[in-house]
Amino acid sequence: MTELLLIRHAQAQAGPSRHWLGWSDPPLTSTGRAQAQAIAHRLHLETRRIRAVYTIPLRHALETAQAIGETLHLRPVAMAHLKEIHSGELDGVTLQEMERRFPVLHTRWQDKTDMEFQWPGGERRADFFSRVAEACQGIVACHPHENVVVVAHGGTIRACLAHLVPDQLKKWWTYSLDNAGLTRVSARGSVTHLLVLNDVSHLPDVD
């Protein structure tokens, strides 16, 4: 059995203002660095040996993965297919600005079942889901009977979960994933199970 430990990157500098991060590359905040240390410490204490740490090749995810890797004595492996959907011309734009400047696009974006939705100058939603599914399936295939950490954006983790456990998480847009939250999925052949969704009990200042 393979167990995927899916972790959303810790808080990045653009995060609190609700900008679309997309493929932009801000560093972690001081809170984010504390979150990264907290999840690293939890994985060290709780999880049987982890064999690999995968991450998107962007600074805020790399910093999160490096904190985990240093604690577990593993070198993170950057994987471009795990990146968030490419928001193209709207990268760095806030949700409020998107609604004001691009009302038609905003309305279509709200229909999460529309797999043909595409960001201007960016990526089609269906293509994003396809590449993330391929990446997650590839990681599982490369690590039979091992524990593997994946550090990525929230959208990437939702796409991965929608592929691996579609019966439970088909409506991928209805649940939230916190910075440095932990989600666990087990996979044995074609049988997958959601074990934990967005556990944040290890984070500072969490009730």
Return the CATH class. Answer: Alpha Beta
How many strand elements?
6
**Structural class category:** alpha/beta
**Uncertain runs:** none
Instruction: Specify the biggest β-sheet.
Output: 6 strands, mixed
- How much is the average pLDDT? 90
What is the CATH superfamily classification? Phosphoglycerate mutase-like
Order of helices and strands: EHEHEHHHEHHEE
**Total helical elements:** 7
Tell me which CATH architecture applies here: 3-Layer(aba) Sandwich
Which fold name corresponds to the CATH topology? Rossmann fold
Lateral strand order in the biggest sheet = 3-2-4-1-5-6
- The percent range for strand residues is 15-25%
Distance between the termini: 32 Å
Measured as a percent range, the helix fraction is 25-40%
Tertiary shape: globular
Short description:
With 207 residues, the protein is an alpha/beta fold.
Describe this structure in words.
The protein is α/β, with parallel strands linked by helices. It has a single domain, classed as Rossmann fold, CATH 3.40.50. The chain contains 7 helices and 6 strands, in the order βαβαβαααβααββ. It has a 6-stranded mixed β-sheet. A hairpin with a 2-residue loop joins strand 5 (182-188) and strand 6 (191-199). Helix 1 packs parallel to helix 2, helix 3 (95-101) crosses helix 4 (103-110) and helix 5 (125-142) crosses helix 6 (154-164). The longest helix has 18 residues, at 125-142. The two termini are 32 Å apart. The mean pLDDT is 90.
